[in-house]
Amino acid sequence: MNRNTVHRKIKRNKFIALTVVILLCARYPLSVLAAGEDAAETAKQEAEADRQLIADYHDYQERLNAIEYQWEIGENGFETIDNQIFPLETECFGTVSLVPALEKMYHRLVLFWVKEDGSIVYRTDRLAVDSWYEGSLEQPCRELSAVAFQDLNRDGRTDIVLTTNCRNKTGDYASRDYKVGDALFQSDSGFYCDYRISDKINRFGMNKSAESIVAYVRDGYSTEFLYTASTRAELIRNGFSVIKEQDYSRQFEKLGYLEVLPGTYTMAKFSTFMLYLINEQGDIVWSFQPMGDFDNLYALKGIACRDIDGDGMKDILVLARYSYAGNDNELMTKSDYAIYYQRTDGFETDTEVKSKVPCRDEDTVAELVEKARAYWGWSPET
Fold first, then answer.
1. Residues 6 or more apart from 36 whose CB is under 8 A from it?
2. Over the stretch 216-267, which tens digit does the pLDDT of each residue have?
3. Counting Cβ atoms within 10 Å, is residue 240 exposed (0-12), middle (13-18) or buried (19+)?
4. CA distance 27 to 47
5. Which end of the chain, N or C, is less surrounded by CB atoms within 10 Å?
6. pLDDT per position as a tens digit, 283-320
7. CA 95 – CA 88 distance, rounded (Å)
8. DSSP bridge partners of 283
9. What's this model's pTM, rounded to 2 decimal places?
10. Residue 76 — φ and ψ, nearest 5°?
11. What is the DSSP annotation of 75-143?
């Protein structure tokens, strides 16, 4: 290829490139180009946030790993949970004390295994509660509520069960306490968390107490079927107990004639309350969990199927009394209700009425229905 041919190709390529630029400018207005600049700025900010996160995590790890003796825990930004320190006999370390601590800035739970002379022989923050917010150093842990010791996998070694009280700063759970459970298994060299087991514990509500976790991990009981069953027969086969006095059928405008099936599954003395809608073939059409984060169903006070929001379709209101552990682990009870609005494709959980209409212990189902209907503009005579 001679020099003139090369020069012609270069000129042609420059002309093509210039033409492409002109066409792009014609096709995409300045606002689009500005949006591209905004995207670039956003990407820059995200990269800077990632760099800061990495730096913060390195600082956290350095402080954690710098702790060699128990009395250095507080000096490095961690607060020992003194009322949850327990002696522990282990195969790998001998006699030690389990010393839990909370990292003050990021609310992470850390466990230390401490010898009699105060030296730390093992530590871990590889817990479900410390990975609740994926990709975040900040976690929702506020208080370690219970510690238990059991041989969970029947290998002759003592394992550890934890339940932690958590609270989110923002979102649906802001200012509401909930629990996260952890199970740690002893090995030849330390303790480890099986995240697959922890996922089941927390996804299916078996984190209410240490007893519930032990019943699942060691004894094989599980509430998972309450959320995965597809038929009424499957529920009964797995131990679901129907509350017969509240079991009846209703015509739902968009879903047809359905059985309203309330009941419980009891595991480690805690009754999980669920409500199902079953069609005439015995299939589960819809399911609800009105008890939320309460520990146990104390008493079902009633279920009403009425049009609450005035759209001509039957909605569902559930009123029950639940029990839970107080600050000093004393038994507490509270009445609470849930409303589910029928829509064309199923049901929608109410949040608006509940935020405005509190539930009193003396309230009845009929009273709450009328209060909810009044909120949506229904007169008592309607």
1. none
2. 999 999 999 999 999 999 999 999 999 999 999 999 998 999 999 999 999 9
3. buried
4. 30
5. N
6. 999 999 999 888 899 999 999 999 999 999 999 999 99
7. 6
8. 231
9. 0.80
10. -110, 20
11. GGTEEE-GGG-EEEEETTTEEEEEEEEEETTT--EEEEEE-TTSBEEEEE--SGGGGSSTT-S---EEE
Under 8 Å between Cβ of 262 and 287: no
Q: What angle do CA 358, 363, 367 make, to 5 degrees?
A: 95
DSSP 8-state code for residue 283: B
185 with 127: CB under 8 angstroms?
A: no
Which of 20-46 are b and which e, b meaning 16 or more Cβ less than 10 Å from the residue's Cβ? eeeeeeeeeeeeeeeeeeeeeeeeeee
Q: Rounded CA gap, 149 and 382, in Å?
A: 58
- DSSP annotation of 71 reads G
Are 185 and 153 contacting, i.e. CB atoms less than 8 angstroms apart?
Answer: yes
Specify the residue for token string 């146990």. 296
